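Course assignment 3, question 2. Fill in each field.
Student: A.L.
Task: Predict the tertiary structure for the chain below.
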Amino acid sequence: MAADERRPVAVLGAGLIGIDLVDKIRRSPKLELALVAGRDRDSLGLRRAAEMGHLTTAGGVRAVVEAGPFDVVFDATNADSHAEHWAALRPTGTTLIDLTPTDLGTVIVPGVNGHRAAAYRHLNLISCGGQAAIPLLHAISQRCTPTYIEVVSTGASASAGRATRLNLDQYIATTSTAIRTFTGTRDVKVLVNLGPARPAPPFRVAMTVLADGIRPAQVRTSIAAAADTVRAYAPGYKVTSLAVEPSRISVAVEVGASGRRLPHHAGSVDIINAAAVLLAEQSAAASR
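Answer field:
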């Protein structure tokens, strides 16, 4: 395959996350969207993908297997179906990027361990809250030893599709486990708030870290550097508040969607999809 040739990829799932992935992949110089697969041929997502000129199918993962192999498949469905999807796609040799909150695959957060992604074929992106919080929490854990971490994600109910609502228990469990893994902290609490406020608020993640021997200047520098790394692929990411005390750190981030098809408040969708496309591009570059 020529160095300038785009790598064929497929999107499995045609909800809010899936259709934003379609838009992001269309703008990628390294990826070629070859198929969008759902289960309902009358779904709005499949209709929109077809209107944009992409091949679509209502045949689900079976159709993806039959149409492949693809270099990368993005699973934007739900946690309960993901194990079945990996079992079906694993023999094809594809790289499967999981955007559902399962506990399967290798957990990846760009900017933290994204350099390892190309070595694996089953990548777990945790959750939108995990992608927003872990870069900063990992940076903090390099400067002190947290004894307690609390993460509260707040988003507009309009940005949470049916699969997201069904998977809230998995979201909390998977995000908690990932935070423990990346920070070495055993005592972790994760909370999620979805609200119908109008106008819809942007996606916000508030973090509280308790630790001894905190050095404020070092912590502030590390947080700023980690936030810059995230903004390189998710431009709407910003630190909105930061308080550093000798034994407590409070930091909050806000994520606004930068995609052309997403409303500003859908930053939760934007950040995890931006991470997914970045990893797919890196995988494509590594395989050349």
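Instructor remarks: The chain has a mean pLDDT of 92. The CA atoms of residues 121 and 193 lie 32 Å apart.
Grade: pending
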